Structures are given as C-alpha cells and as structure tokens.
Amino acid sequence: MPMEQIVERVAERTGLPLNTRTVERVLRALLAHHDFWEIVDAADEVVPIVAETIRVLDEQGWLRVEPHGIFLRESARETLEREWGLRPLPDFRCLACEGRGLDPRRLPSEGIETFMTIQAERPRAIIDYDQGYITPESTLARFAFAFMRGDIQGRRILVLGDDDLVSVAVCLMGEPREVVVVEIDRRLVEFLKYWADRMGWPLTVYSLDLSQPLPASFLRAFDTFLTDPPESMAAFRAFVGRGLAALRGPGSAGYFGLTRREASLFKWHQVQRYLIEQGAVLTDVVQNFHAYVNWDYAPKTRAWRLAPVKSLPDKPWYRSSLCRVELLTEAVGEVDTVFDVHTFNDAEASTT
Amino acid sequence: MPMEQIVERVAERTGLPLNTRTVERVLRALLAHHDFWEIVDAADEVVPIVAETIRVLDEQGWLRVEPHGIFLRESARETLEREWGLRPLPDFRCLACEGRGLDPRRLPSEGIETFMTIQAERPRAIIDYDQGYITPESTLARFAFAFMRGDIQGRRILVLGDDDLVSVAVCLMGEPREVVVVEIDRRLVEFLKYWADRMGWPLTVYSLDLSQPLPASFLRAFDTFLTDPPESMAAFRAFVGRGLAALRGPGSAGYFGLTRREASLFKWHQVQRYLIEQGAVLTDVVQNFHAYVNWDYAPKTRAWRLAPVKSLPDKPWYRSSLCRVELLTEAVGEVDTVFDVHTFNDAEASTT
Prior knowledge:
By secondary structure, chain A is an alpha/beta fold. The first copy, chain A, is built from 12 helices and 9 strands. Chain A has 2 domains: about 5-85, Winged helix-like DNA-binding domain superfamily/Winged helix DNA-binding domain (Arc Repressor Mutant, subunit A, Orthogonal Bundle); about 105-345, Rossmann fold (3-Layer(aba) Sandwich), CATH 3.40.50.150. Chains A and B meet through helix 3, helix 4, helix 11, strand 8 and helix 12 of A and helix 3, helix 4, helix 11, strand 8 and helix 12 of B.
C-alpha cells in the first residue's frame, strides 16, 4: 500500500488534515516503540491520526496489535527500512536539562572528531561575502537538530551558502540521499569539492550567486534546505525564499538562522508573515542556538564604527537562533526574482 | 529623561523602529555588563540601536564611556533600580548544552524546595475542566524561562488558568509587581488564595470562566500573560486572545503551551497566522519543553477509547512546547466574544 493511499484512508476516516510526512512520522515511531503512548510521543502527531494510521496498517497486515503492545511485522519493517529508507529517529536531546536543549556531544564521537579535523582547515571568513561562521560545536548542533527532526537521513538536501560547513557534518554522519551546496565563494567551493571527492560523499557543489535565480532543475526537488542568510528582508527572500521554492512540497522542511544582532523583532515579524503566507509553519524557534567565531575583519565593519569603545570582542557575542519551518502546501517562494546585492544589508545591519 | 523620550531620540537618529522594551533591554544589559559586545549580546537588540541608546544616555550624563568599557553612573543605576524597578536579567541557561536548553535547577534552591512542598498538596486534575498539569519541574522551567526573558520581575502578570501553579513559582522567586490569576476551578482558587494570604504574596485570584469576557479593568492592564489552553482554535482565542487584549501594548509578552498531541501543524499554522495578525511576533518556540503528569481520569478520555491497546501510560508521553510572543503594536485580541465551551475541544482533541 503506497504512502499516498494510507494518507487518503486516514484522512477519510478521521476527517482531519494530514500529509505523507504525518504518516511517515508515525511509521518512524513504530520502528522504535511498541507502547501506544510512546508511539504518540515519538510521532508528534495527534492521537486520532496515530490511532487511525495504526488501524489502517493493521488491516493491511503490517503490524500486530497485542495486549502488551504494537509490533511491526518483520516484512513491513523490511519494506519501511529498505524500500522506503525509513529509520527510527536518533535522540540528541540534552540529558542535563530534561531535553529542553540539544547536546551535539551525543553524536558519534568518530564523526565529531573527523568533522573537527576537516573544519580546522577551512578558509577564513572574509568580508566580501558578508561571511562569519558559527563555531564547529554550533554546526554540529544544527546538524544534530535537523537529524533528530527527520530532515537529514535519506533526504535530498539543499544548502544555500555553506561557510558553516553543515554539509560536511551531514555527509559524515547523516546518511543523506543527496546533498547539494550552492556557494558564491570559490575557496569554499574548492574546499567542499576536495572533501566530497576524497570521501566519496553524495555531495555536489555549485558556484552560484544567490542574488540570481537557482537553476530550474532545483525547483520542487529537495526535502530539506538549510541556510544562514544576511538579514535584510531582500536577503531573506533571496536565501529562504529560494529555499522554499526548491522544496518538494507538503512535509518538506527548511532551516535558517536569524539574529537579534542585525534583525529587530519588527523584522522578525515581517519574516514570520512571509513564511505564514508561503504555507510554512514555524515548528521551532530556539534563541541563542548558534554562537559565531569572531571574524578577522571586525575592525572593517559598521559594528566597529558604531562601537563606542574600540576594543575587539574577546569571546563570542554574535549569536543566532535556529528556526525550522515545515511546508503544509507547495510554496511559491522566489523563483525568477533577481536581487540587488546592495539590498542584502539594511539599516539594522552592522557586520559589513 | 523619561523612557519615551529616549525611544524618540534613538528612533529619530537611527531611523529604525523600536519601543520602550527595546531601550529597557539595553538598560538591563548596561546594569550587568561593561564591554560593548557583551552589552549587545545581553540586550538582544541590533547594534545601531544599542550604540545610539548608549550615546543618548552618555549625552544625558547617565554613563561614562571609557577606553576599557561603558559604566553607568551610580545615580543612574539607582534611578534604574529604585525608580524604574529594573534589575539585570538572571541566567538559567543549561550549562551542559551551551545554553540551548534551560535548567531550572539553577533557580535558588530554597525557592525550589518551597515550591515542591506547596505543589505536593495541590488539588488533583479532574476531567470537568480538561485539566492535566505539567510536572513541577516543567512549571519551574516555564517560570525560569519567562524570568530570564525579563517578563516576571517588576511586572504585572496575568495567569489565565493555573492548574500548573506557575503563579506560585512567580510569587516565590520572581519579585513580580502584581500577579492576577483567573481560574474556573474553585478548589484551585481556594488553594492559591490560601497560600497568597499565608505568604503575603501580591497575588489576587478570581473565580472566572474564560468562555466569558474578562472584567473591563483587565484590558491593557498587564505586562505579561501566561496560559496553557485547550487546543481548539476557539479555546486558543478564548485564552490567548483574551491574554493579548489584557496586555498593555508594544513590548508586552505572552506565553502559552501548544502540543503536537492535540494540535496538528495545520492548527499550528492557523494559530501563528492569528498571532501575526494581532501584531505579535513569535520569539520562542521550544518543542517538548513541558512534560505532563499522567492524569487519574485517563480511562475516561477519548485518547483511551482511541488507543488500540488499553494499557495506562507508565511514563510521561504528553508534552507541550513553550511559545513566547511579544507585541509590536496594541493587540485587539478577544474582548467581548463569548465562546461555547463545547467548541473548546475539536476533532484533533483526545484528553476529555
């Protein structure tokens, strides 16, 4: 029984809205749990939907409902894992704070070590492209977060600008189906290509300026995008808007960083209105999720000119939130729009 | 120089939007830090605004800009602390996960102990009011989160429904100006009144049904609201909408819980559209922030009837996110609307 048919039947019987991602979340929960309440907890879907999905799967002979729990049949498990590529979701929630935070040290230690070795050789941030990368721990945390939400393993992933090297963490530990990076900085393009070749990763890197449209083949082609744009509304549309247009549709997810250092809550409000209108729902907004490595070109920035005291920061001060959206309908996003790069920084900006 | 005048001058000179809350955040940061970059980090406001606010305060003789940092003058500090009631913000970020999570164990241990003693005697959750309270650790975490965001100390706070006893944590540790609880359950009203009297808290408790309008005196009267509504759109409007109408205006903040157990992402999208249209911006959405204590009446619920296996949950499975909004304009909210309580549970609901 194909996914779409399960969705249809559950929708018919419950009268509730859902999409393939809904059913997928229930299936992944069934791969890991047997207790109904634990399944609901892991699926993060409403009880009537979870119950009805289980009933439909039961009717199809995919599982057994027994007095002590719910068990996928071996044949169904194999179909889900081999043919559909579904795995149980990993758990990286922080053990110290009851899971309110996320602890990237729960990632496989070998993966962490390799990532740290590779990132140590990265090109330095330069002002030309308004670069400024997050700490390697922050990149690992962003990757772990998306992995835990089911947006990495088995997915086609688009990274729009990758000075944070999130594609490296994804390829090392995330078992993606495919990763595409578009990046304006030739040094980064070469760096990522070198490692993709050497490690045999399913990673393609394109040299591309996001003020210009994405290739047509990118539209409706990805399950997940990740980006960390400059913070004017124009830049947000150029990066996140193109990301949205590149997503396949309902159930696809996007990640972006947004600061309070260069974006006021007034701009946040505009950003959120844009997302809502695109049919995207905000599932996560975690303040101060990423810390940035202080950049070498600090004394050339507007922030420096504005600073009443001219002393270099001696610890991270520039942080950004992690925001995740999930599409409920196909998004229009930004397809043909060409942006003027001079609009990528507005009057709230200060890092160039 | 009154707050409004600082706002005006900074707005004039920067051409950027801001409100009194913006300046307040800079002032609280100045109470705790001297390094410009640390001030920006703590203020969570854009660099040009922080820099210009410091310049205006400097012109007024409120601070000294020196080669090694920025220092509030003693007289200004006294005005801010005594007359304006501003304190530096406390920090409860989890030390294990680089502050991505929040650890309520960083609250004063005496306050935690007293809270645990008081909550142990609470009335049990009953099905009549769709009750189900979060673990005491979750209540402490919600309180600590709001405290850290500057929404507790010195504030007028409205709690719409308080079976979670957040007002107890607020009164014990948060130094609020005033707390008002509206609650339908007489047992809880009596319980809270008893402790307010005994401890001399600035807490008033009203017996009130939120399907009905709030007293007119509540409109535009509070800085902060906290609520954990049933999860139909009607209930959301009755609880959060009334909360919004009770907020003073720009810079006021609201907190609510929202689950994935009884609210699909489709409903989340409706909720977010409503908030955006009310002039509220979502500053935080933290999934699985609260865990619920399993309720005694579980076998009487729709969730139980839907469960394919009839076994009681033996650990927490019902969780909710913590969402925070901040107003950028006055919200209309829900003032005169009377709701039918039968609309407080919809087809996605299952806990009654």
